[in-house]
Design brief:
4-stranded antiparallel sheet; single chain; elongated; 517 residues; Triple-stranded beta-helix; 6% helix; mainly beta; 3 helices; 5-stranded antiparallel sheet
């Protein structure tokens, strides 16, 4: 019986002569010789990875496609994708991944190879071996460890219902050449004099001063005792050489450093121009764009403090400032501690979380987000009412704010009336706009808590046992503790707000417009 297994070492090459009788094993050995030499070349002289193509794009809600291309794995096997291949983003059990999961699309060589093309003449059997790529999707915690056999093509970010939201191919390996540079591979005489002058030669004899005779030995770069200037500053750089800025803590005047730990004083205007990417936290939760990133690992301190005052010592010590990432202090009247401004179309201040204000809140009016479902253009000043359609979109922290549809108010004494148009709202894409489960937060007896006293809110417990609740119904308290009900006989002072969603019977949780009256 023929042996198709490729040996670890193929040392024999077929020799042909006249009247030779060839059998099937001879042809197999002939192929094995060339396959072995090709894979040995790829394995020893090339690094594993993508050689060409194999771009990954989103084509369906839970599907991606891989473009034609070629890769080489760690065993030197070429993996060829001859045409566009679609991949369902599912786990090994055929189930969709969950929202928030980081998933890797992995490609590998089909092992064992597949028999193909049945013979049409002679005895039965397959006439070809089919070499093809195999695609799998793994959660980031279960990706096979050998990334030279299981080549990672892309990292996929999964949204609601297994939807693929983002494809990131920056982490894939690119096939290349393995170049061995030996000690004598490049002779110094082959380099130009200009190049040789810039190279470090003979260790401590290297001249850092472009030929003026002063030599700096590399061994002097040991920091050693930081209290000894000769061990910290082998170039003898003075404060004046760096525009009187002290980078080791202290106020600089001329060439004299005055001890003042934790301080860096800039005497005059300093312009900082930074052109670097932002910072990731390991899960890509921090934007990859930005100019300056300040990190302070002490949770009881501040990352950045900005203060404007008459003197250096003018610090408002009477104010208790808690730990914070950014602190803004103004000691002058009519001067802002922090001022935010932006062009039309973008919020000047976006707070993702709870805003705690200890003092006066000076503003004009409070607005909530709704959807224009009137079929026409609305303008500032239009009086609108709830349309009564189901709420399908939510926004804000934990999506606690429902976004209901409104239309022009067109009847007298309409209980569906909800407000007056201010202007166009900003679209918030921080979270998918579906309703989330309410947070399971428990406030113990004696603890402080936040209450919603005005505005739209996605979670209100209601009881429709006595009467069904329709959109626009006024809500009041019920005998069921912690639940609201339809106000069939509205009484001033007992109205909690207005229903934004219906409940036909029983108890449940609906979205409401809170307006105590």
């Amino acid at each position: 019986m023929a042996d198709y297994k490729l040996p670890d070492y193929v040392t024999k090459r077929l020799r042909y002569f006249n009247n030779q009788f060839l059998q099937e094993q001879d042809f197999i050995d002939e192929q094995n010789y060339h396959v072995d030499r090709q894979r040995r070349h790829n394995r020893l002289l090339h690094s594993a990875g993508v050689a060409d193509g194999l771009d990954v794009t989103i084509t369906g809600t839970t599907q991606v496609q891989v473009s034609p291309g070629t890769a080489i794995d760690g065993k030197g096997r070429q993996i060829l994708v001859p045409q566009i291949d679609s991949v369902d983003v599912k786990d090994s059990k055929g189930e969709l991944f969950k929202q928030g999961q980081s998933v890797f699309l992995v490609m590998s060589y089909t092992e064992p190879e597949v028999e193909s093309d049945p013979t049409t003449v002679g005895g039965p059997g397959a006439t070809r071996w089919l070499e093809q790529a195999k695609f799998d999707c793994f959660d980031s915690g279960s990706v096979p460890g050998d990334d030279e056999i299981f080549l990672r093509l892309a990292q996929l970010e999964i949204g609601e219902n297994g939807k693929v939201n983002i494809v990131n191919t920056k982490g894939r390996k690119i096939a290349g050449s393995k170049t061995a540079i030996t000690q004598d591979s490049i002779d110094e005489t082959l380099l130009t004099q200009a190049v040789r002058d810039q190279l470090v030669k003979r260790g401590n004899l290297h001249d850092h001063t472009l030929g003026n005779g002063a030599q700096l030995k590399h061994s002097n770069l040991d920091l050693g005792d930081l209290k000894l200037p000769e061990n910290r500053n082998p170039h003898n750089t003075t404060a004046a050489d760096v525009n009187a800025l002290s980078l080791n803590g202290g106020t600089v005047k001329g060439n004299v450093t005055i001890d003042n730990p934790g301080r860096l004083d800039v005497l005059g205007r300093t312009f900082v121009k930074i052109k670097v990417p932002g910072v990731f936290d390991g899960n890509n939760k921090i934007s990859n764009t930005g100019s300056l990133f300040v990190v302070n690992t002490d949770k009881n301190s501040y990352a950045l403090v900005a203060k404007i005052s008459a003197t250096d010592d003018d610090v408002p010590l009477q104010k208790n400032i808690p730990p914070a990432a950014i602190v803004g202090i103004a000691s002058f009247d009519k001067v802002h501690g922090i001022y935010a401004s932006s062009n039309t179309g973008t919020p000047a201040l976006n707070v993702d979380g709870t805003a705690l204000i200890n003092g006066k809140l000076s503003g004009t009016h409070i607005v909530d987000t709704f959807i224009n479902a009137s079929g026409q253009r609305l303008t500032t000043g239009d009086v609108v009412k709830l349309k009564g359609t189901p709420v399908t979109r939510f926004r804000g922290q934990q999506n606690k704010a429902p976004i209901a549809e409104v239309t022009l108010a067109d009847r007298e004494n309409d209980t569906l009336a909800i407000g007056i148009v201010d202007g166009k709202a900003f679209r918030d894409n921080a979270l998918p706009d579906t309703k989330l489960e309410s947070e399971s937060a428990f406030i113990e007896d004696g603890e402080d808590l936040y209450l919603v006293t005005l505005g739209v809110f996605a979670h209100c417990k209601v009881d429709a046992t006595e009467a069904p609740i329709e959109v626009g119904d006024l809500l009041t308290t019920s005998k069921n503790p912690g639940h609201a009900k339809k106000a069939t006989e509205p009484k001033l002072g007992s109205i909690i707000g207005k229903a934004l969603q219906p409940l036909e019977k029983g108890t449940g949780e609906i979205s409401v417009f809170v307006n105590i009256q």
